[in-house]
Each structure stands twice: as structure tokens, then as C-alpha cells.
User: What shape does this take?
Amino acid sequence: MKSRTWPILLAFIATGVLVSACDDEQAEAEAEAEEAIEELTEILEQDENPDDEEAAAEAPDEPVIGELAPDFTLVDEQGESHTLSDYRGQTVVLEWFNIPCPYVVRHYEEQTFGNIIDEFGGLDELTWLAVDTTWDNTPEDTLEWKEETADIRDYDYPVLQDPDGEVGRLYNARTTPHMFVIDEEGILQYMGGIDDDPRGREDVEDRQNYVAQALTAITAGETVDPSEAEPYGCTVKYDEDS
Amino acid sequence: MIRVSYLCAAICALWLSAIAIPAGAATPPELPDVPDGAFAEDAYDDGEPRVAKRLLVNADSVRAGDTVEAGVLFEMDPGWHIYWRDAGQGGMSTEVIFDASSAAPGPVMWPEPTVYHEAGGSIITFGYGDTALLFAEFEIDDDAQHEVQISADVDYLVCEVDCIPGRAALTRTLRIADETTAANDGSRKFFEEAIAAVPRPPEQTGVDVEVRYSHAPIEESDQFRVEITAIGCMETDEPDCVELDAPPTEPADALVYDRIDTISFDVARASPHPDAHSGWFIEVSGRASRDSFDGDRRFRGVLRLRDADGQPLPTAVDELFPRTESQQAKALVLGDGHAVADEASPQEPTTPAQSPLSLGYILLLAFLGGALLNLMPCVFPVLAIKVFAFVNLAHEERQSVYAHSATYTAGIVASMLVLAAAVIALQMVGTQVGWGFQFQEPGFIAAVGAVLVIFALNLFGVFEVTLDPGKLQQVADAPASHRRSFGEGVLAVVLATPCSAPFLGTAVGFALASPPWIIALTFTVLGLGLAAPFVLLTLVPGAARFLPKPGPWMAHFKQLLGFALLATAIWLVWLIGQMAGTAGITRLLIFLLSCGLAAWIFGLLQFRSTRARRLGLAFALAIVVLSGVFTLQFDDVSTSKATTDDTDDTVIAWIEWSEEAVQAELDAGRPVFVDFTADWCITCKVNEANVLEHRRVVDAIDKYDVAMFMADWTRRDDHIRAKLAEFGKAGVPMYLLYTPDAPNDPDVLPELLTRDMVIDAFQEAAP
Assistant: This one.
């Protein structure tokens, strides 16, 4: 350490002596420095701007951890339109959903999703979007399901209608549930199963809930690990003709 | 109208009954009746059970200490399926837990599963439809009495479009008896089928399976490839050849695998093995997530091989999946592991300098060879006479004898060094001219082979090497002094020539491929060997008595040595075979045969009139030259991609890659495609055979006037290595496509080419 600090200290002293000894030179040096800084900021700005535009334009066409989540627009069961990029600034959770799938049913009965929303400050703090890619599902089916399950659901979030499977395929959604966590900057931070207990044998508290873990890590500014886990559940019922 | 519809109804009814009868006959075999606790139905769908389960035992009664199979037979409704021990990209694996009183259940045996393409093929899952028997072997305790209780807990998901989870606990008893008796409830054929369908290790199916990774270890966020080769046999006429059917058209159908945490797999290609007579080549592309992982894993799965009759030949794969550095991991890397060590030796035959023969051993051989020359018919008589005379003349003065011996040795060594100098000079000139004195050089091997054959024939007496006798006399008559001894050393070398030429010539041939100092050293030691017996005999008075008498044995000895030369020729033939395949061997042998023929013709006419001799020499030379011109074209053989089949006419005019040549074509306005390939890279070969050389692609090459370059990395090349590194690749294949508009920014095509992809890319690149 010492052997390295000495020359630097000497250099500083020498510069100081030189600069104070010659005012003209100092002025010149200052001007030069200013120019350099200007140039640098210009370069940085040039670099930054196109980058922003490019990034916005070039979200990959598949889900990639650490990159922008693919953007999409879908209507929910009420006919209201949702565009993912409009939620920039909020953390978004996507939940692939199917009404009769027993795995989905179990997690609703176990309040798996409601508990996460509770833990992370309710729907004001967290944007939760279910996506139903089932080919024969209709908004009416969704409304009917919502009515039937009203007493076991503490939160009412939109169920986006994707019967032709476009967004499902964009996200390679394979099972219901299949979860995606997107941070405030629109970056995909987690994708995969909801937890580590496909067969639902453990007590709810003993399961490792990957979505809750990801949200905790994002809140704390830490790296999400695992960022991927095998999704489990029923296979997504895609429209095979499209 | 009404009549028509009646008629139609009648015909339809007839048709239906016709269809219904065989359909009824084809219903699945009678399912065994099982005791109450061993049967369960569930997965209710609108009140209908979709799955029935029966706990079956492959015996009616069992003797204590015997082993018996027991398992759960799943019976699914048509169109419904359960999943394998790994469900694949969706669904849920089936879980079976066996237990027994007074018996130890073995691991669950999983018959080969079916591959399901769900969601129009975008989700690949592994499972079973109709019926599936998942079983285990139960080893009954030696002291088991009365009966054994066998139980199975199953947990599964059954899907058609909708999915229904199910669980069941089944149990039944098995009677202990003096003898094990077969099941009589119809269970046996289910067990037979299931046992036959359980994947077996490659050693048992007779298929040679190798798993190789594009790199190892596989680290976080890595993209990688797994190449799996399953070889039934390489050549048609191999004994025990396992004839395999063609791989399935859907790659996913070729392999089922157990998933690994943080890794995703995708079976990207299944094609016939490009080199094997019977074999599959499967490529899996993979990706590791950025997440933390815990050490090495195993890559396990089942190759869904089919034999020539279409019968399943499920073969288990179980190989290290390397996530940490290790020797084993290194050995599993494509091109670096022993896959290459096995295959690269053909391309890089050992040169004498690299061969396991140490220099010391070579020198020992040279010494013995030199000593052996004394026994040759042309040297031996002279030697014997000389020794006697010499000893008699010099016996009064020991000092003088030592001095004469030393100068005699010096004479021999000096003449040998002259020969060595000539060889080194020839080597240098040749290298400058561009001759390759390397054993990788087929032409050089052919030349050495010709020398061996011709000299072997010389030893057999087919023709003679003669020297002008007059000259010999002059040397022998030099004045008696130390200078004379030196001269006698030289004389010995010269005298030995007719017989030693075969050996010296051969030595010269081999020496050409060695560094100069080794050449000089070898020839020196050869000379010392030649001098040794003479020196020994002069220094030890009376030793000459033990010299064998000259006689016909010497001629036999000479002929015997001819066989030694021919044996050496076999080694050269093998080298050529490694480099240029069977075709290369054939070419070399034809050339060697014509050399032999030429030697014979020369021998026939050698001692006739001068005119006849000249004619014979010219004729012999003509034969050698002509046959050389027609047969010694190994270059096109060794650069052709097929190592064993040079008749494979290349449909693409490949240009050898260099930066300058690429630039020149781009300047000329042509798009440029560069194929970075290697003979040991199977992916490269499959891409070349299935995609690049396909008629449609070849047409596109013509149409868009693409300059096709090949950068062959079979032998490591620093320029190619640098180019690969420039694009972040550690190995082949790599495909670059340059457009004249952007000569510095080529497109990197994926490692798995498809015809459409390449054709589209060519179209875009065309000006």
C-alpha cells in the first residue's frame, strides 16, 4: 500500500507546485479540462439516448432473465385494455391461469397468490395480472369464475384474455400456473413455478415460494436467485390451430 | 330423397358393423382380476374415472429368498396419458413408492415412455397412454413366512386436454410357498412386455453411445450443446452389427431425458450418423440459467432407438453433466476429449520425432543395424580376410593396432557423415522447394514405401546394385599407412554399398523426416556399429576364430532381412490408411506393385547388353513414373470430407479459407460464406451433408453467386483459432456470412443450420 501511495502523493504535490507557480498554465489547464468534460458529456449523452430508444424498441421476442420483458397488450374480462409497458414504475407479476386446472384451483384454495399480494403491500404496491391462454375460455367464463370464487379471493385483479395464445407463446408459457416477475424498469427478474412443492404436500409455510423470494430480492435491491425454476401444473391449453 | 338417405343409412350401418367387429377384436388384452385392496379407480371427470390401477405380482406364490416383480398397472381411458418419472416441459411426473413386509423392493423400473407433443408441438412431455406397468423387483427375505404384504403408493396427473391429479394406495398379499409359481391371472404378459420395454444400458443393447458437450464445465448463463452418438456399427460387415432404423422425423421423439435444475434442454436434431453404417446422431441445445447451482449432475435419459424392424431398442444414457472443472469433464468436451484422441490420430500420425521410440532406442537400433551390415554377403568375406591379414601384420605392435583401429573407425564415420550431410542438404533443398518430408505427407510416405519395396526386392535378388569394380581396386591399393586404414574404413562403407544400400536407403528415407542433428547422430552411430566388429576382432587376438565361415547362409540371411523391410512397409500402408482411407491404401499398393514390377524388369535386363540395360532402365522408370502420376493423388483424398469414401463427389466448389481470399471475393462483389469445420466435428458434417450440400441449397449458392469458403480445423490452426475467438467461439462449427456491403460485419449463422435458413440468408446477402 505504502509503496503505491508515495508516488501518487508526490505527483499531487508536484502538480500543485507547478500549477500555483504558473497561473497562465493553470488557466489553460482549466480550459482544457472544461472542454474535455463537455466533450465527454456529449459522448455520454449520445451514447445514452440511442441506448434508451434501442432498449425500448428491442425487447427480445422471448422471455430472457435480466432483459426487458416482451411487451404486449391484452383486454381483461371486463374489456379493459392492459399494456405491460404502461406499468413501468411498478413491479408486475404475471400468473398464467386456467379455471379448471387442479393446480390453479389448489393455489386459490390455499390463498397462495393472495398471501403474496398481502405481504408486498396489496394491489396498490404490486401489479398482478392473470393471463388465461385457454383456447375455449370466454370473458363470461372468467366473470362466472370470479363470482363463484369471490369468497376465497381477497384481491380482485384482472384476468387477461389470450384465447388465441399469442401472449402465451410470446412468453413460452407452458403450465398453469407459470409465473413471471417484472421489476419497475420492466426487466424480467423471475420466471417459472410458483414454488418448490409441485405435489402440494408440504405445509404452505414450509414451501419455498419463488415469487415471494423474487419480490423480496427486488425490494432489497439484491440479485434474484433462483431466477428460473421449472414451472409445474397442467399444460397450457393452447389453440392448436393458430 | 328419402330413399337415398335410407340407402345411405343402410350402407353406413353395414360399414359400421364391419369396422366394429375388428375393433372389438382388437381391444386390449384381458386385464387381470386383483384383490380388493389392489384395485383403485379415480381421476373422476364428470363422474367418469379416467384411470384404473391394479397392483400386480408376477407370481402366484413365491419361495423365501426368491426375487419377484410387482408393479402398478395403470389403465387410462383412450386419449388420456400419465407422465414418466420426469414429465418433460409440462404436466407432473408420476410417483410410485413401493413397500413390502419381509421383502426389499428395488428401484422403480420405467418402461420406455412415449413423447407427447402438446400445444401443437411447443410443449414436449414424456408419458404413457393406454396401459403402463411401473414395477420393481422385490427380493423376498430368506426368513419370510406365510405371506408378504406388498404395497404401492402412487401419485400422478392424468391429462387429455384437461388434467386430473390422482393418488392411490394399493396393497395385496403374496403367499410364501416351497416353490415360486407363475402368476395365473394373466399378469405375466404385462410383466413380459414391461420388462422388455425397460431401457437397458448400451453394453446390453450393443449400441455404442457417447455423450459430448460443446464445452465443460457448463457455467451460469451458458448456452451449450450436447452431442449424442449411438452407433450400431461403423461398417456394413461388422460382426454383431446392430442395424438401426432411421431416426424419427421429429427430433424430440428420439430422446427423453431427466431434467436438471437450472438447465433447460431442447432436442434440436436427430439424424443418421454421417459416418456410421448404422447409427443415430442427436443434438441437444441447452441453456443454463444464471442461478447458483450445487456441483456436478448426471445427464440421464433414454434413447428411443428402433432396430431395422422398427422394434424399440430403448437404450439408457447416463453421463456426467459437468458443472465443475475436472479431468472427466475435459474428456467430455467435443474436439478436446478422447473423442478426438480416438479420431484425431488419423489426421495426426506420429512422426518419428514424436513417436514413443526414444532417441536412445533409435541410436541403439542404428548401432545394431551398422553391426549387422558386417554379416552382409558383400561385406563379410572382405571383412574376414581383412581382419586376418590385419591381425597378422600388426600383431607385434599393440599401439599400432589401436591406432589403425581408430583410423579405420574414423574412416567409416567420416564417410557416414558425408552421407548424413548429403541427406541434410537434400532435406533443406526439399523443404525450400516445398517437398514435405513429413509422415503426414502422403507423397513422402509413398516414396519411402517405394524405397522399402525396391530394396526388399534387391535383397531377394530380383536385381543387384553394382559398382564399377575398377574404382574399388584403386581405393584398396592405397599406400599402407594410417591413411590407408582410414581409406579402408571408407572402403568398407563403399564395399558394403551393394548390400547396405537397402538399409542405408531406408535409413535415409526415415532420416529425412527428422531434424538435422538427429540425422547426423544416427549416421555416426550407424558407422560406429559398422566399425565395431572389426575393431573388436583386431583388439581381441584370437576372437577371429569365432567368426562364422562364409557360405550360403549369408544369402538366406540377406533374403530374411528383405522381409523385415516389407514389414516396415506395412506400417507405411497403415499410415496412409489413417490419412486417406481404404482408397488411399489401394492407391499406394498399386504404386508399390508397379515399383516392384519395374525393379523386376530392370533385374531381368540388368546383365544383358548395354542397350538392353538402358532400355530396361527406361522401361522401369516409365512404369514407376506413370503409375506414380495416376495413383499418387492423395491430396484430394485427404482434404475430402469423407475419410473413408473418396467417391463422394463434392458438389460445392469449396475455396480454402484465408482472410485475404475472403476479402478478394468481397471486393469482387460476391457474398461470402465461411464454413469453419473439422473432420471430427459431427455437427459440421451433418450440416454439410444435410443442409449445405442439399440440392436446393446448392442451387441457391449458384443463383446468388456465393463464394463458399471452408476453414478446416481438423488440424489446429492459429489463424482459424483467432477467427473463432473473434466471434466468441472456442470451437467449430461456426458459419459466417459476409455481404459485400458490410465486409467487416458478417452474420454469424446458428450452429444448427436448416436449408431454409441458409437459403434465406444467401438471398439476403446477395447484392
Observations:
- The longest strand of chain B covers residues 163-176.
- Chain B is about 45% helix and 25% strand.
- Confidence is low (pLDDT under 50) at residues 1-27, 337-357, 636-649 of chain B.
